[in-house]
Amino acid sequence: MCGIVGYVGPRQATAILMDGLKRMEYRGYDSAGIAVINGDGLTVRKAAGKLGVLAEELAGNAPTGRVGIGHTRWATHGAPTTPNAHPHVDRSGRIAVIHNGIIENANDLRKALVARGHEFTSQTDTEVLAHLIGEFYDGNLEEAVAAALRDVDGAYGICVISADEPDVLVAARNGSPIILGIGDDEYLVASDQSALVEHTRSVIYLDNGEMAVMTPKGYRVRSLISRRVDKPINQIEWDLETIERGGFEHFMLKEIFEQPESIENTMRGHLLEETGNVRVYGLKLDDDQVKEIKRIIITACGTSWHSGMIGKYMLEELARVPTDVEYASEFRYRNPIIDEHTLVIAISQSGETADTLAALLEAKQRGARTVGLVNVVGSTIAREVDGGLYLRCGPEIGVASTKAFTSQVAALAMVTLRFARLKEMSLLDGKRWVEALAALPGQVREILSRADEVKVLAEQFADANNALYLGRGVNFPTALEGALKLKEISYVHAEGYPAAEMKHGPIALIDDAMPVIVVAPRDAIYGKIVSNVQEVRARGGRIIAITNPGDEEISDLADATFVVPETLDLLSPILTVIPLQLFSYYVALRRGCNVDQPRNLAKSVTVE
Ligand code: M6R
User: Fold this and answer.
1) pTM of whole model > 0.70?
2) How many independent structural domains does the chain possess?
3) Is residue 602 part of a domain?
4) Which of 298, 303, 478, 489 to mutate to test the pocket of ligand 1 (most atoms within 8 A of CB)?
5) Are 4 and 191 a contacting pair, CB within 8 Å?
């Protein structure tokens, strides 16, 4: 969730660090700092607040030097103040450290260091690590870092420099991503590919327990124990343009509008029209293995959990495999029942979410076969699973997940088809399913061409302080996702409910100040939701209905209606969610909120 960048090479480090931090600012943004080796000393500059505050402070007097590290922070230990911002230095002031993650034994280490005379200026676990490295330092930074890390429990992605070895940059990883960028006579380190692509596409992904030592003359990867580990060099596929805003006011809006292409990319090369099936070799599940699976557990967080819920409806309905959907943070601590006939599907846009990763590792340890539906190539979850599908929806920068959600649902639809065609689904139904999937990008494009209709609605409802989202069946998770989108970027309290459940409590909230957004495509349970909408109407609630062309009953009851094209019932969330994403975007805009960087949130949640 914090952003890490490091540089060693012939160019001035400060500009490269600040540029890299800018590209990663979406990951965490309550403070920022850099440290540059300057002559024979170390210059550390940091500031609380957005990166712009630090940039202003550096304007006109940026430190010079060709080796440096930079960090944007999302607070875990200690308030988001300047003293708590990274980099942190050791007792000598000559070693600087940036860190992403949490050092779990920091309190014990701090007590021991204090007993040995150390004084601390921040509340962070990172400063403890800096002092520990300093204690081990006797002229060899690489060995001091390795020795200190052997005493550390917890998660870290770190970068370290020392004024006494002005050509050396050391990085290490355990649990938090660290990627090395291999340039021409220069090396970069980052926690996120976006900080590297401008400089190089050649990268090495460090694995847990690995370190890298870089100088302008070369690099070496090692483990905490051994001196050398051979690592392959990978190529980043995304270019800079795909990471930038491309003329849209916000990343979120750009990403909403990218969905026709992103959904298409997710499915590209997988759909088999002739056989009504999918080609998904990446799952690494042959026919016998699929038949052996007796139970599926989907684990994820946030929006990815919502797509997992939709997956449950699909898998149970069509493949008839019992499927549970678990919050990753709960799953790992509740002694789950898993055997070799259980398939665990981890869903994650970033592939770095700490809870999802831990749940996945727990499942592996208990003998489950694992599959990942992940967007970021080379991310930790993608590398830990037995098989999987990349979402291929391109970088998602806005904190509110949009295009990853629709791609996750499309990926789950393909997994479902793989299972269903081996179990009960006929060739004809398989073909209908493939045809419906292939039609989705065009249908999303059509919805987006009417985004202005949603904008008008959002402006009418933007002053409300609460909202209720209702849906039934597979659109109950859509309602949950709509509510999450609204609350995270516009700070409007919103709840999602199964429509019929409303009468068991939430109905007490309904009055003319409470917008009720009803997701009601004309599916098999449409008739049931009509009665729920009547109950809202009878209590004076203001209703926005998302439905299909030809609907009359709900439109007659609603204050406003937005129609989406018809598709197969189980695929409808991919279409019904689009107006909900747009609605939350326009409400947030109207309320003056920071759409791409909402308060208290980070794009990639790499702490428990
Ligand atoms: O990267 P992941 O998909 O694992 O992230 C999971 C959640 O943190 C994420 O979906 C979060 O809920 C988003 N802010 C939702 O918009």
Assistant:
1) yes
2) 3
3) no
4) 303
5) yes
